[in-house]
Amino acid sequence: MAKQQQYKFCFGPWNISEGQDPYGPPTRIPQSFDWKLDQLKKLGFDAMMFHDDDAVPDIDAKSAAQITAEAKALKKRLNDAGVKAEMVAPRLWFHPSTVDGAYTSNDAKCRKYAIERSLRAVDIANVLGTNLLVLWLAREGSYIRESKNGRRSFEFLVQALDKMLAHDSRIRLAIEPKPNEPMDQAYIPTIGHALAIAQLTRDPKRVGCLIESAHAILAGLDPADEIDFAMLFGKLWSLHLNDQNGLKFDQDKPFGSANLRVAFNQVRALERNGYGRRGEYVCFDVHPFRTTKEEHWLAHLDNSRRTFQRLVEKARTFDEKKAQAFVAQRDYAALDQMAIEHLLGAA
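Above: the chain's sequence. Below: its structure in C-alpha cell form.
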C-alpha cells in the first residue's frame, strides 16, 4: 500500500486580522508581526505566506540594499523559529499608481512601477528561501469595459510576466485568479485563464497557479474541479483553502464553514492528485469573524486545519469501490446519500 500523504500547513500575517471592514473600524487591538509569528509557531504551522511589504514594511521608501538587509533579518527570525517562507506576493492594489490597474494600467509610468516593485518582490523571495511568487491580479480588469483594450491588456500582462521570469531563472509565478472584487470584471477570472496566459510567456513551465476556494465559488465554479484541472497540468503550486457563502464579496470564511460537502470534495481532489508530494503547502486564507473576541483570535486558523484533517480521514475512508458500483448503475441518488451519510458519521 502506498504511503499516505502528510500535509504541511501555513497562513499569512493578514489572516490574524483586526476586524475592520468597509462599514466599521477594527474590533481587536492590532498586534505586531513578531506576535503573529509567535502565534503561528505556537499553533504548530510549518510556514508563513508574505506580501512583499509584510516582509519589508514601507518597501517603496527603501533602497535595494535596505530591502535586502531587512529581508535577511526576517530570514534569520524565521530560521530561529523553525518556520519557512511559503511564498512572496507583491501587494499591487494599495499604491496610488495602481488605481487604474498595475500591469494593465493605461499609464506607462504606472505599469513600470508595478513591474519594478514585482522584481523587488522576486529579490525578497530569494532572500527568504522561496522560489514562489504569487500574483493576485487584484486591479487587472475594468470598472468600465470601454476604458481598456482587452487584447492590449493581456499583452501587457504577458510582458510583465516575462520581465519577472527574465529577472530570475529560478522564480516560479503562481497566478491566483478571481472573477471580480475589487474590479467589476477581472482579466484572469479562472484557472483556465491563468494556464492559458502562461502559454504566451517566455517560459510557460515556470508559470502556474494558486487556487483559492472562495474565488472559484465567486466564479460559479466548484473548487474541486479547479483543483483537478490545475493538477492535470501539474500547475497547482499553492492553495488557499477557505469558504464562501454565495456570490457576494470575498468572505474568507473558515474552511468548511459554509459548505462542508464542497470542502470534502476539495480534499478528495487533493488526495487523488497527490497534492503536497512535491513540497506544496496547504494554506488557509481565512479571517476571524468580526465579532471574534481577542481571546478567540486564532480559532479560525486552528479550526480550519482541524476540519481539513478530519476531511482527510473522511476522504481516506470513503468507500470508493461502493461508490463506483453506484456510478456503474447510474444510481446517483444512492451515491448522493452515501456521501451525505459518510459526512454525517455513525448514527
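The mean pLDDT is 96.
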